[in-house]
Amino acid sequence: MAVTPESLPPARLSLADLRGAAPRRRREFAVRLVFLAAATVSILISVLIILSLIGRAASFLIEVDPASLLERGWFPRRDLYGLPTILAGTLVVAGIGMLVAAPLGLGAAIYLSEYAGPTTRRTLKPILEVLAGIPSVVLGYFAITFISPTFVQSVCSTGVFNMASAGIAVGILITPLIASVAEDALYAVPGSLREASYGLGARKRTTSLRVVFPAAISGIVAALILGVSRAIGETMIVAIAAGASGGSLFQLNPCETGQTMTAAMTALAIGSEQVRGASLAFPSLFFVGLILFLMTLGLNLIADAYVRRVRRQI
Amino acid sequence: MAAATPRQAVTTTEVVRRRLEGGRIEWRGLVFEGLLLGSLIVAFAILVTLLVTILVSGLPVLLERGLDFFTSPLAANPADAGVGQGIFGSLVLIGFVIIVAIPIGVGAAVYLEEYARDTWFTRLINTTVRNLAGVPAIVYGLLGLAFFVVIAAPLGNGGRNVYAGGLTLGVLVLPIVIITSAEALRAVPWTIREAAYGVGATRWEVVRSHVLPYAAPGIFTGTILTLARALGETAPLIVVGAIVGTFRYTAESFFDQLSGPFTGLPTIIYAWAKRPDAEFREITSAAIIVLLVALMTINAVAIYLRNRFERRW
Q: What's the gap in Å between the CA of B254 and the closest CA on chain A?
């Protein structure tokens, strides 16, 4: 483009002169739209998840005999959809998981945040990171080949498959998660609080337990809630180690086999070719999925609120 | 003179500490610290036990079968069964994750960090991403079963193919890709952007020539780690219809294989772990070794990239 007197800017610049050439602005606008579209995909996925669950869950609820939902047993092949059974199984496994993971995770978090020096921290933290990277299907196999014969079967006389060993393996799975979230919360407690405590003559243990721990309590609660949420949604460990493959009776004894929501879903999915259209088993898969989705979403939202409270305080 | 030397070696801090403690050792504090350290030691012991038990039962199979184990298809007889189809399936699935999740995820992160103002819409996207990251994997399987299997049905095998599986895994790791990429973008200091704006660059020019190159190592490390997550994911594949029994690739060409039945390495581990016989136990361990070595390789690549290209500001 040749420089003519017309193409030169006038003596006083207006805003329009600073906006740049039209093709450059158009390209700018197009790029912005592409990025916006990419960001909107996550909203689209959420909508699709809810749609995929609600549609078939509703058709299940319309067709199912309401009495069979309260039956104490989960046998989709016989049209028995006892929700208390799979809820009880889920609670037993998640409860045992938390009994294992809460002390291990919080202990590791307090040690790493309050006691370990920089070098010790760098050496010990990878233990948790490597543990966090073990796929759950591997921990499920570990549950039946090691945890069950070594620990569980020495306490209760039972078969290889039981809810206790599944629960312990779930505990191992969620320990790194609890440790990492709780450690972040402890680490974020300002040093001035610790110094004030030492200044009053408190010991390290008193400072950690009575000053730092209460100051970080929101984050620690969040860590525990996230742990429960992960434990409830964990699938492969339970599908391998908890035993009941097709259906199960109502069972609260951890030494026995049991059925969780996720394991019930896996069993339904593997058999779904045969049952598709034949009975309510296929839509029931989505109904259980919807309950699981709502439970974990609720827990995650509560944990999120606690995490945000920590950020506001500090 | 000689008798006075040890007294001089004691420092002032030491004297003050002894006086404050009354010369006693605080046993309860030591026990407490020991218990805390114990939880890390227990975690370490679990890790070592897990690796040792799996190595002991799986390594002989790998040494005895050698390459045959890596290439053989699934079979009813454990002596013939191998993980060939699983390795093929997992590689293709990871390929889909790379194609689906990384462009969309990095794009969304760029929008959230570089373009979006603090509006209700931006906050909605941010909340959605965080909540999607917490949705159980098996629920993504249901999403795949309800939509992706239907979409992929014309491609073959009633939609129970790697296209549906790959889309499902891609969507599953998308929120993690967004979160890690956004962190990497946030770590690029504002002065870099301001310098570029100062010489008249537009927003896209700033992002393309300055922010993305500086954030690239962090984005690569984060996304490579999400590939490790995708590689170990089992439940969604089972729901979408990965084979847990046996099957044979009947098709000859690569693309025809893609539209047929599929399985992944972790799906094979699940299928074999359910079998009670000792021979299946051994080949399950062998398959787990293959999976863990693959995961370790991915992590090693990520750590190498981080150390090689990381930049401190």
A: 26
Chain B hits for A226, Cβ within 8 Å: 134
In order along chain A (314 residues), what is the average pLDDT of each group of 10 residues?
Answer: 56 71 89 95 96 93 87 83 92 97 97 93 91 95 94 87 95 96 92 94 91 93 96 95 80 89 90 59 91 96 86 62
Q: What ipTM was estimated for this complex?
A: 0.90
CA dihedral A185, A131, B293, A146 (to 10 degrees): -170
Within an 8 Å CB–CB cutoff, is residue A151 touching chain B? no
Instruction: Tell me whether residue B274 is exposed, middle or buried, using C-beta atoms within 10 angstroms of its C-beta: 0 to 12, 13 to 18, 19 or more.
Output: middle
The domain segmentation of chain B, as residue ranges, is: 2-58, 66-309
Q: What is each CA distance from B25 to A114, A199, A305, B18, B166, in whole angstroms?
A: 20, 20, 42, 9, 60
Q: CA distances (Å), A263 to each of A129, A208, A233, in order?
A: 27, 40, 10
**B40 vs A112: CB contact, 8 Å cut-off?**
yes
Beta strand A248-249 with A80-81 is: unpaired
As a dihedral over the C-alpha atoms of residue B165, residue B166, residue B172, residue B176, rounded to 10 degrees, the angle is: 160
| Facing residue for B203 by CB, picked from A28, A103, A201 | A28
What are the helix (H) ranges across B118-211?
120-133, 137-143, 149-152, 162-186, 190-198, 203-206
Backbone angles phi, psi at A222, to 5 degrees: -60, -45
Strands (E) in chain A, as ranges, are 73-75, 80-81, 248-249
CB atoms within 10 A of CB A21: 9
Domain B66-309 -> CATH class: mainly alpha
Backbone angles phi, psi at A277, to 5 degrees: 80, -20
CA–centroid distance for B48 within its chain:
20
- The nearest alpha carbon in chain A to B295 belongs to A133
Write down the CATH superfamily of domain A66-313.
MetI-like (1.10.3720.10)
- Going from N- to C-terminal start, the domains of chain A cover 23-63, 66-313
